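ERR on first pass: missing label on line 2. Operator R.T. fixed the label and resubmitted. Corrected input:
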Amino acid sequence: MVAKIEKALLWVIETICLVLLISLAVSVIYSTTMRYLGSSPAWYDEIASVLLAWLTYFGATYALFLRQHMSFGGIVTALPKHAAVALALVSEFLVIGFFAVVAWYGNAILAVAKWDSLLSIRWMTLDIVQSVIPITAVLMIIGTLLTMPRALRNAAAGIDTDHAEIEQAIAEAERETAEMSRKDKTK
Amino acid sequence: MILLFTMVALIGLILINVPIAVAIGIVALAGLTLTPGGATLYDMAIALYSGATSFPLIAIPLFILAGNLMNTSGISVRLINFVTSLIGFVRGGLGMVNIGVSMVFAEISGSAVADVAATGTVLIPEMKKRGYSRTLAAAITSSSASLAIIIPPSIPMILYGAIAEVSVLKLFVAGVVPGVMGGALLMAVTFVLALRYDLPRAEGFDLCHVWRSFKEAIWALMMPVIILGGIFSGIVTATEGAGLAVLAALIIGIFIYRDLDVSRLRKVMLEGVNQTGVVMLLVATSAALGLFLTQAQVPQQLAQQITEMTTNPLIVLALLNLLLLVLGMFLHGAAAIILVVPVVMPLVNAVGIDPIHFGIMVTLNLAIGQQTPPVASVLITSCSIAKSGIWETSRTNLPFIGVLAFILLLVTYVPQVSLALTGYIQ
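pass 2 clean. output:
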C-alpha cells in the first residue's frame, strides 16, 4: 500500500517536473528566436523565472523521494548500528521539522501575496505563483516519511548513499556504452 | 561569534547526515528565530521563493539537460574515437585523449559523477587494457575532470556569477587560459609518466581512420562550437546558449546519431530535473541563510576584522585560498560556492580583488577539493570505475594535484592569466 502511494506520488511529481523542464527549455529557445526576429516576448523574463522556481522545488521534491540530495553520510555509516539508526532518526525528524515550518510560513504569506499579480499575466496572482513553497514542503514531508524506512535500513546496514549513487551512475554508464557498441555493430 | 555559531551548527548537522541544503535552511531558521532583528520567518519563506528565481540561474537546468543529452546520445564516445585517432600515436596518448575529452565534457551536466561515469567507463578499461596501472588511469581521469570546472560552460561558474552578481560570460572567458594551460600541463605530466612506465601508444596514425572518425564525430564537434562560439561571439547570452545547446543535442541525438528514443529522453530529462533540484534547493536555502547573515552583519564584520589586520591583497588571497581548500575537502563544489561566496564578497571588494579573478580562484580551489578525500566525488567515481584504492590513487594523483595547485597559484598571483581575455568582452 505504502509502496503504491509512493509510486503514484512519484509519477505525478515526475510528470509535473517534465512539463516544467520542457516549458522552460521551449520558452528560452522561443524567446531567443523571437529576439532575432525583432520581437522579444515581454513575458519571457518573468515567466522563465517563475518556471525556474517551480522546477527548483518540484525537482528538489523528486530528488528527495529518490534520496539524492547532497549529504555527508561517512560518519553515520561508520558508527555502530544502534547509534547510526538513532542519528539517522534525528536527521529525519530535523528534515520533517524544517519543511513543516516552511509549509506553515509559506502558506501564511499567500494571504498577502494574493493582492499582487505577475506584470505580464495580470490574472496570475502571486499566491498562485508562490504556492509552490507550501505545496512542495508538504510533499517533501510526505516523501521523507515514505522513504524513511529505507533510509533507516541503509543506516543500520552501514550503506553510504553517496557511494551507492556512484555505483549506480557507473552501472548505468556501462549499460549505455554496451548498448551503443551493440548498435554500432548491427549498423 | 555568530559566524562561529553558524559554522559549528552547519558542520554538526551535515555530520549527522542532514542533507546540506536542509542543514543550511535549519541554521537560517534558527538564526532568524534566536537573534533580534527585522527579518522574520515570513521573510524566510519569501527568500526561499525569490532565491530560486534569479534569472542567470535559468542556464543551470538547461546546461544540465544538454550535458545529460550529450552523455546519452553517443556524442562523448564519438569524440573519444576521433581524438584517439588523432593523437593516439603519441606515447601515453590514451591518457592525453582522456584529458582532452574530460575537459570538454566534464562539469557540463552539473553532476560530476555522471560526467566522469560517462567518459570514464569508456576510457579507463581501455587504458587498463593497454598497460596503464589502475591508479594512474583513475588519477588521470579524476584530475582532468576536475580541471574542467574552469572550462566553460561550467555550472559552478554560473552559480558564482549569480551569487557574486558578475557577468557569467566574463567568467567563462576568464576560465579559458588557465583551463588550457592546466590541460597542457596535465598532458605533459602524463607524457613524462608514459616514458617512465613505458606506456604504449594507443594506435598508429592512419589518415583514413582519422577521416572516418572525423566524419562520425563532426556533429559531436559542433556542440562546443555552437555553445561556446555563440556565447563568446556575443550572438547569444549564456542562458540562450544553454537553450541552443539543448536544441542542438536533441537534434543530433534524435535525428543524426539516432541514439535517443522517447524512453531514453524521459530518463535523461528526469536525471536533469533531479540534478537541478539538488543544486537549486541549495541556492534557495542559502538565500534564507543570506537573509540571516546579512541581518547579523556577518559578512561586513568579517571584512572589517580582516582588513583591520591586513589590507594586503596577496595575504588576503592566501587566506581565502586556505579557507576554500579546507572547505573544498569537506563540501561538494556547489555547496561550498553557495556558502562561502556571499560571506567573503565584502572582504574581496574591500581589498580590491577583481570578482572575476576571485571567481576563477574559487572554482580552481573546488577542483582541488574534488581530488581530496573525504568528500571527493570525482576521485571516488574514477577509483570505482578503475577498481583502485582511494589512498593509492591519491598517491599517484599527487603530480596531477601539483599541476592544479600550480595553476591555482598562477591564477591567484598573476591576475592577468585569467583576466587578460576578459578585456575583449564588452
